[in-house]
Amino acid sequence: MQYFVRSMEKHRDSDRVFGPELPCAGLDMAKTAAKRIVLSADPAIRMQADACVRNRGQVLTKYRCWINERGDFLENVLG
Length: 79
What we know:
Layout: E1 2-9, E2 22-24, H1 27-40, E3 47-55, E4 58-67, E5 73-77
Antiparallel strand pairs: 1-2, 1-3, 3-4, 4-5
C-alpha cells in the first residue's frame, strides 16, 4: 500500500490539481500533510486536499479537508 496526498481547488466548475502527489509513510502522516496544505493556502483558492491510499492499482480516499466559500476549515473522514 502507498499513502499519498493530492490537492485541488474546491469549486464545482474546477478540478484543477496543484502539484504532484505527495507520498507519505502512513495515513496519519498523510492526514497531517493534507491539513497543512489546506490551512497554509490562500482561502480565496478554496483548496481541498485528500489523503489517499493506492493498493493494487485502486485509489481510495480516506480523508478529505477543504476551505468552504465562507472560509471555514472543514474535514471528513471517509471509509
